[in-house]
Design brief:
The chain has 8 helices and no strands. By secondary structure, the chain is mainly alpha-helical. It has one domain. α1 packs across α3 and α3 crosses α6.
Length: 239
């Protein structure tokens, strides 16, 4: 009987210890789960803020890209009668020259995303869909756009050099912010009389069109991702 009582006592003590350890483990796991949820919500909200900033940046880029693209389109299609159309797009002669002699970068704000990647906090984001769309936006589509911008930059350099060597007056008139009509007349005359210049302009024009196409795709993915993050935050009860 004594041995039975001792055995029962040991069993009870063992069960108490096991129960305590298990409860402690569950409690720690629960606290860790809550902390992970907080980190995930923090990461998603940071991404949400940055996506809003990127959206604003893309709208500005889209306006500038399409203006430059339209200027080249008017010059290539009908340089003799395109002044009025171009005049409505730009305020000064450098605005016309920019479409030929310069290029516009694509550098959306990505500091928050890069921090999440570098610090490893992306591991707290549970949604594979969110992580996949982040990669598509910030890696795949961004890389496409950067590559096209780099190609356009190379063409722009050739175009600027060709103008400087063969039509220095076009470069100089733009430099001194000449009256738009005077600058345009000089430029349109050069375009009309030079097939090489037209070819360089068309090559740049084509790259700008591809850039606009991929920017549209980038914005579509951005909206899709932003909606996905918003739904995820709602499901987690985050305001």
């Amino acid at each position: 009987m004594y041995k039975q009582k001792n055995a029962l006592r040991y069993i009870v003590e063992f069960l108490v210890i096991v129960t305590g350890i298990t409860a402690s483990f569950w409690g720690e796991e629960y606290r860790e789960s809550l902390q992970n949820d907080k980190e995930e919500i923090k990461a998603l909200k940071n991404l949400q803020i940055e996506l809003d900033e990127i959206d604003t940046y893309c709208e500005e880029r889209k306006t500038s890209y399409r203006k430059d693209h339209n200027i080249l389109s008017y010059l290539l299609k009908n340089p003799d009668y395109a002044f009025d159309s171009i005049d409505n797009l730009v305020q000064s002669s450098p605005g016309i020259g920019f479409a030929l002699n310069d290029y516009r970068e694509f550098q959306p704000p990505m500091n928050r995303y890069n921090s999440i990647i570098n610090e490893g906090t992306i591991k707290f984001i549970e949604s594979d869909s969110v992580k996949q769309q982040l990669s598509e936006l910030h890696n795949t589509l961004y890389a496409y756009l950067k590559s096209i911008v780099d190609d356009e930059k190379l063409i722009q350099q050739k175009l600027s050099l060709y103008l400087a060597e063969n039509y220095p007056k076009v470069i100089l008139l733009e430099k001194y912010d000449t009256e738009k009509k005077t600058y345009y007349n000089t430029l349109s005359k050069a375009v009309n009389n030079d097939e090489i210049l037209k070819a360089l302009m068309y090559t740049k024009y084509r790259k700008m069109g591809i850039k606009n196409y991929f920017l549209d795709g980038y914005e579509e993915k951005l909206i899709e991702l932003r909606n996905r993050i918003e739904k995820t935050l709602i499901n987690k009860g985050a305001k």
